[in-house]
């Protein structure tokens, strides 16, 4: 079967052009050179996760993951729209990146040692800190996960959520009955109908589900415990450190921009700033862009095209009702702590 | 309810005209009475209903219960789908305001969801301003099916029409020429993807299947026969999902870096190979059902192998296997939806993504109903057509 599939696909695929060889422009990164000569960044996203990467009614991919791709495209090509989004599923996402079909993958993927150690891939940063949470009806008077002993919990089978709950409850010597439902709409209706005491998934998903209940949102409460760490980030292939640096620092630049008060609205004034930190960020001082293999105004392009991290947040996940929480800046009680840009 | 009534019927000589032969325990007398009147045809529906639906207390009870259930369900459905349905919602800055739908949840359908998303469901992520192109492509496909279905177009020119139409479809979908904006395959989606995968899949799989079926029955070339058997058995031995995974996940790993035949193309090849194996067995069935005399008569005429196959064997064999062929066609039309597991936006995945939008997450029933109607329309037309074709062939055969 393999042989025949391969042969057939080869014969038909032979007509397809090989991607053009990387032009020697001296950015020092094969991936960046390929992207430049192609004029497009190829970015793997999900087929549809609300707030992260989801095609809107017009077919345009929206979300924090999609915008992270756009930011990298802006950094390299100066235009945030020069991205080709490739929808991937949880089964083919890593292969698509490994095989070179994608330049990078931003698909709400949790950063774990196993993935980084085994797959030949690297996480270049975290654009969203998520974790497994619990939603309960406020009428039930549950204040903590500890009160959920013996409860029935709606959860999607085969997810990291299912594992996390099982581990957490065993560790805390609590009992629960899982109600396993694959379909998202069905699981939510089951919870609303009262067949489960609690609905558990990533906190971001719970927040947006609660928000969509409109005026009835008050009937549901998100428990304070987040029982697992799910740092979601962007991945690149191992072996191209320059590209890795660029992807990583593009996100840092966006976070730093928020910290320094640089946004897409005031970027033109900021170009005239005398603050040395901002001057280095916008490239009016130093050669930091060159060091990354791109234009010195790379960060300006990113902020013009996508905005700073806070703007990206407000546009993508905030409308779904996600509180900023641990995704705030380090000096506002969150975890986003960009190393100095100098 | 007695034997005597039955006998009376028989005695009147009406039983022979009765569509349902009267049997013991069934009151056939009233039927006989109806039949005795002039212009029996006018009463045929009543007679039919009596004979089939109300022929005994049990039958009557079941009929009434079913009528009650169906009517209740139909009224409920009409209530939900039409009377209490929400047909549109106001658009706000932040997107559609679905509060009307939320209030009607459980009482009325939210067709506003389809209104907001129908272009996405039909065309996927295709550039919004250019979506008239896939719309034309859908029309072209349907026109192509309609023309191919008409027997008066069954000549060599049809092949030309297909080539022209498929070229036009390619040009429209890709663009990049004649002032059309280039749209890469990654952005294709919705109904055109389903039609492309099934049309190209079956158009390529069918000739392949005929060759494999012939090869499998070849006595002169054992090596070819072995290869054909191997191909059919290997492909049939695994599920389509496995082949799609193979094409999508494994295949790129064997290729040199940078060489990446498109995902859609890989899926298409997998579908062709899979459909080919199944169709080959269907065709082989036809070949085996053909009386040996036909082969021998062709040989006696001194026809070459290809003439014999093309003029005598295949026309008869294929005619024999129309029902299983169409069965396989319909199956594959629906199977193309499996490409969603490798992230290709066919009709089903586009629909599923449309309801991933948090605003519309609760309205999956409405979406699946619409998708079911689309799939049903295509499959039903296919099966109706095959029935017509069969009848026509039977008529010609009798002449």
Distance between the termini of chain B: 47 Å
Going by CATH, the homologous superfamily of the largest domain in chain B would be MetI-like
Measured distance between first and last alpha carbons of chain A = 55 Å
Provide the CATH architecture of the largest domain in chain B. Orthogonal Bundle
Overall spatial form of chain B: globular
Cα-atom Rg of chain B, whole angstroms? 28 Å
Tell me the overall shape of chain A. Answer: globular
CATH C-level label of the largest domain in chain A: Alpha Beta
Low-confidence stretches of chain A at least 5 residues in length (pLDDT < 50)?
1-25
For the biggest sheet of chain B, the summary is: 2 strands, antiparallel
Stated plainly, the CATH topology of the largest domain in chain B is called MetI-like fold
Structural class of chain A: alpha/beta
Description:
- The complex is a heterodimer of chains A (342) and B (399).
- Chain A is α/β, with parallel strands linked by helices.
- Chain A contains 14 helices and twelve strands.
- A five-stranded mixed beta sheet of chain A has the order 4-1-5-12-6. In chain A, strands 9-8-10-7-11 form a five-stranded mixed beta sheet. Chain A has a two-stranded antiparallel sheet with strand order 2-3.
- In chain A, helix 3 (64-77) packs across helix 9 (241-260), helix 3 (64-77) runs antiparallel to helix 13 and helix 9 (241-260) crosses helix 13.
- Chain A starts with a helix and ends in a 26-residue tail after the last helix.
- The two termini of chain B are 47 Å apart.
- Chain B has two domains: 3-52, no CATH class; 123-398, MetI-like (MetI-like fold, Orthogonal Bundle).
- The radius of gyration of chain B is 28 Å and the shape is globular.
- In chain B, helix 9 (191-216) runs antiparallel to helix 10 (222-236).
- The longest helix of chain B has 35 residues, at 364-398.
- The model of chain B is unreliable at 1-29 and 31-36 (pLDDT under 50).
- Chains A and B meet through helix 1, strand 2, strand 4, helix 4 and helix 7 of A and helix 6, helix 10, helix 11, helix 12 and helix 16 of B.
């Amino acid at each position: 079967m393999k042989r025949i599939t391969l042969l057939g696909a080869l014969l038909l695929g032979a007509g397809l052009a090989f991607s053009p060889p990387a032009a020697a422009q001296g950015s020092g990164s094969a991936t960046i050179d390929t992207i430049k000569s192609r004029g497009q960044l190829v970015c793997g996203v999900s087929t549809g996760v609300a707030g992260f990467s989801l095609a809107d009614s017009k077919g345009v991919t929206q979300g924090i993951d999609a915008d992270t791709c756009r930011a990298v495209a802006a950094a390299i090509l100066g235009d945030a729209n020069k991205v080709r989004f490739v929808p991937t599923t949880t089964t083919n996402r890593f292969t698509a990146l490994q095989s070179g079909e994608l330049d990078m993958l931003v698909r709400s993927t949790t950063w774990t040692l196993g993935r980084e150690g085994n797959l030949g891939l690297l996480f270049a940063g975290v654009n969203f800190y998520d974790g497994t949470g619990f939603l309960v009806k406020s009428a039930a008077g549950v204040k903590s996960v500890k009160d959920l002993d013996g409860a029935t919990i709606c959860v999607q089978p085969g997810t990291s959520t299912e594992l996390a709950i099982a581990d957490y409850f065993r560790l805390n010597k609590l009992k629960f009955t899982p109600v396993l439902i694959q379909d998202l709409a069905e699981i939510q209706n089951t919870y609303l109908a009262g067949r489960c005491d609690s609905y558990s998934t990533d906190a971001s998903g719970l927040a947006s589900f609660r928000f969509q209940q409109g005026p009835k949102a008050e009937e549901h409460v998100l428990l304070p415990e987040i029982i697992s760490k799910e740092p979601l980030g962007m991945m690149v292939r191992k072996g191209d450190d320059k590209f890795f640096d660029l992807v990583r620092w593009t996100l840092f630049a966006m976070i730093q921009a928020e910290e320094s008060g640089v946004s897409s609205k005031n970027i033109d004034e900021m170009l005239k700033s005398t603050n040395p930190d901002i001057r280095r960020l916008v490239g009016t001082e130093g050669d930091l862009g060159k060091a990354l293999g791109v234009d010195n105004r790379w960060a300006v392009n990113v902020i013009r095209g996508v905005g700073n991290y806070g703007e990206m947040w407000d546009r993508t996940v905030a409308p779904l009702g996600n509180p900023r929480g641990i995704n705030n800046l380090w000096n506002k009680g969150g975890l986003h702590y960009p190393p100095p840009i100098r | 309810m007695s034997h005597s009534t039955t006998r009376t019927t028989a005695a009147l000589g009406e039983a022979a005209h009765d569509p349902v032969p009267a049997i013991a325990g069934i009151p056939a007398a009233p039927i006989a009475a109806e039949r005795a009147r002039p212009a029996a045809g006018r009463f045929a529906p009543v007679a039919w209903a009596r004979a089939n639906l109300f022929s005994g207390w049990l039958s009557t009870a079941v009929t009434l219960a079913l009528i009650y259930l169906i009517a209740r369900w139909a009224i409920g459905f009409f209530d939900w789908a039409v009377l209490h349905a929400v047909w549109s919602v106001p658009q706000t800055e932040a997107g559609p305001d679905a509060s009307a739908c939320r209030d009607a949840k459980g009482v009325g359908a939210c067709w506003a969801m389809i209104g907001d998303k129908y272009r996405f469901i039909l065309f996927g992520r295709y550039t919004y301003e250019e979506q008239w192109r896939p719309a034309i492509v859908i029309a072209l496909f349907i026109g192509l099916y309609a023309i191919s279905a008409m027997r008066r177009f069954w000549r060599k020119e049809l092949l030309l029409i297909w080539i022209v139409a498929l070229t036009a479809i390619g040009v429209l979908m890709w663009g990049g020429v004649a002032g059309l904006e280039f749209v890469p395959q990654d952005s294709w989606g919705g109904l055109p993807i389903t039609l492309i995968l099934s049309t190209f899949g079956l158009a390529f799989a069918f000739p392949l299947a005929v060759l494999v079926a012939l090869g499998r029955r070849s006595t002169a070339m054992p090596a070819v026969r072995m290869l054909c058997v191997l191909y059919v058995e290997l492909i049939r031995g695994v599920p389509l999902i496995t082949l799609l995974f193979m094409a999508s996940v494994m295949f790129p790993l064997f290729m040199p870096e940078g060489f990446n035949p498109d995902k859609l193309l890989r899926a298409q090849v997998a579908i062709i190979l899979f459909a080919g194996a199944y169709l080959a067995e269907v065709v082989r069935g036809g070949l085996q059902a053909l009386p040996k005399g036909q082969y021998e008569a062709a040989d006696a005429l001194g026809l070459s192998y290809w003439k014999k196959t093309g003029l005598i064997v295949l026309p008869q064999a294929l005619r024999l296997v129309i029902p299983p062929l169409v069965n396989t066609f319909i199956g594959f039309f629906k199977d193309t939806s499996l490409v969603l597991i490798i992230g290709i936006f066919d009709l089903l995945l586009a629909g599923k993504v449309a309801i991933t939008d948090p605003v519309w997450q609760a309205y999956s029933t409405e979406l699946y109903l619409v998708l079911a109607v689309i799939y049903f329309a295509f499959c039903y037309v296919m099966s109706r057509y095959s029935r017509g074709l069969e009848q026509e062939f039977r008529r010609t055969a009798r002449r």
